[in-house]
Amino acid sequence: MSLYVKIADAIMEKIKTEEWGAGHMIPSEKELCQQYHVSRPTVRAALSMLVNQGYLERVKGKGSFVSKPRILEDSTVFLESFSRELAVKGMQVQTEVLEHRVTEADEEVAGKLGLSPGDEVIKLVRLRYVKDSFQEGPIVYNVSYFPGRYEFLQKSNFEEESLTSVLKRNHVERRYLEKNIEAIRIEGKIARILGVPENSLGILIRAVCRMADQSQVVEYTLSYYPSDRNTFLLKISV
């Protein structure tokens, strides 16, 4: 193991144990050199590694600070309940429903759901937070559309029960997923709802969910993630 990696691991241990919490200014390069008996290039390599991984932030003229933790979405479990996914990481999700109604499909939504423009669809708009961290702001803004035939969705309370649970209870399982992932600038109404500055960096994921046989589309969702509150891990077998 390279020496700089050992230094980075030692710093990470302090971050993971919260000895150095979010916003904590870590020792200077000179102090770290003295503490670990290594050269300045070794310390710089370790710090650069942690900055690139999102664990540290450099502030010009001040020093290096522990970053605010971001929510990690693992693409291998994207079809699981969002609540269950974060529960694995020791977090609970709180959902705020902003809109839940029947509307008419526009051209884009109709095309994704295999319907005709003007057909009835159920629209569900949600903000998702880490529970008891409301002050940190939402981690994702979801706009979901479902074919009108899923009438049971209109009677469900999605602040009390997850979408996955409601669908499974009614014998509808999302088993096949197509994603389009795009880097965007978050603007206008969505920026205000997420509580981020206009033109903030973000990720937009458009997802189409189908039944196991891929014959029926269950859901079309647009998910807006502020980049300063989220990071993504893509696992691919090669």
Report on the architecture of this protein.
The structure is a single chain. The protein has about 240 residues and is of the alpha+beta class. The protein folds into two domains: about 5-65, Winged helix-like DNA-binding domain superfamily/Winged helix DNA-binding domain (Arc Repressor Mutant, subunit A, Orthogonal Bundle); about 70-235, Chorismate lyase. The chain is built from seven helices and ten strands. Strands 4-5-6-9-8-7 form a six-stranded antiparallel beta sheet. The chain has a two-stranded antiparallel ribbon with strand order 1-2. Strands 3-10 form a two-stranded parallel ribbon. A hairpin with a 6-residue loop joins β8 and β9. The longest helix has 14 residues, at about 5-15. The chain is elongated, with a radius of gyration of 22 Å. The two termini are about 25 Å apart. Residues about 75-80 have low confidence and may be disordered.
